[in-house]
Amino acid sequence: MDGVFPFLKPPGITSHDAVGICRRILKERRIGHSGTLDPLAYGVLPIFVGKATRIIEYTENVTKTYVAECRFGYGTDTEDSTGIPLQEEVVPNDVPSWQSLEDVIHSFIGEQSQQPSIYSAIKVNGRRAYELAREGVAFTLPSRTITIYECQLLAYAYPYFTIRVTCSAGTYIRALLRDITTAIGIPGTMTQLARTAVGAYTIEQAITAEELLERGETCVLPTESALSHMPIVQVSEAGLLALKQGKQWPYEAIANFEGVAQQLYCAYSSNGFFGIVEGTESTLKVAKNIFL
């Protein structure tokens, strides 16, 4: 069994737990996921089965969409409602208006530097940051460049507000909400988080554990469905044979194709998808052999 499917991870379990559930249902040893979701969060978690696990590294950087709820009044050490409050309830003299909150939210659209939460899965000297944070180890995570493509206020009734965010990989929604509430001047913390899309996979398509148990491997989509963010190239049987043998295949041998150096392509032959190839100055070479 080889392929991918969007799993609907419920709140209260880790992404690793979700993989374990899918492994037991499908009875498949080779299984993994991309794009970790915190235990608090629910939503789309792409699950890769069989040979499709070879492409996980090529799917981490796709755009993601979230719907998140935040509560004004106090921050926590984890920047979400599972953490310990950092202060007593802050009661503002003036409650922010919809317009003022919306203006601040919109100001975060675009490329920016973000400081991740120390309670994250980022590795520090081989260990997860959240493990070190729980042990009281002092450390600082470097800021990272992220892009917010959309940030929309969906609902607001003080002290709660809800936003929809479409963002680049590596964005921490807890940290975004922390920065939004800091800009408003009132501490806040994330109370709910749903991931509604990962690349081409949407929450409407996501499979629950119950559905997976009932439908089994019929839920599994073709491996290449996870590569919709890549351009496609079709090579001839001669090109496929050359690539199989570790050779490179010239652009001039592919009709109406102008390759780009360092660009990755989702590669097909007459028999269908076979792997990921990379462009050089004048040829294609295999980047990841999936089915060769």
Number of helices: 6
How many separate domains? Answer: 3
Strand share of the residues?
25-35%
Instruction: Specify the structural class.
Output: alpha+beta
Order of helices and strands: EHEEEHEEEHEEHEEHEHEEEE
Mean pLDDT score = 92
Spans where pLDDT lies below 50 across 5 or more residues:
none
**CATH architectural type of the largest domain:** 2-Layer Sandwich
State the total count of DSSP E strands: 16
N-to-C CA distance: 16 Å
CATH class of the largest domain: Alpha Beta
- What is the gyration radius calculated from CA atoms? 22 Å
CATH topology of the largest domain: Pseudouridine synthase
What best-fitting shape do the alpha-carbon axes yield?
A: elongated
Structural write-up:
The chain contains 6 helices and 16 strands. The chain is 18% helix and 33% strand. The protein has 3 domains: 3-62 and 200-227, Pseudouridine synthase (2-Layer Sandwich); 64-198, 2-Layer Sandwich (Pseudouridine synthase); 232-289, Roll (Archaeosine Trna-guanine Transglycosylase, Chain: A, domain 4). Strand 15 (272-279) and strand 16 (283-289) form a beta hairpin. The strands form 3 sheets. Strands 1, 2, 3, 4, 5, 8, 9, 10 and 11 form a 9-stranded mixed β-sheet that branches. The protein has a 5-stranded mixed β-sheet with strand order 12-14-15-16-13. The protein has a two-stranded antiparallel ribbon with strand order 6-7. It is α+β, with helices and mostly antiparallel strands and 292 residues long.
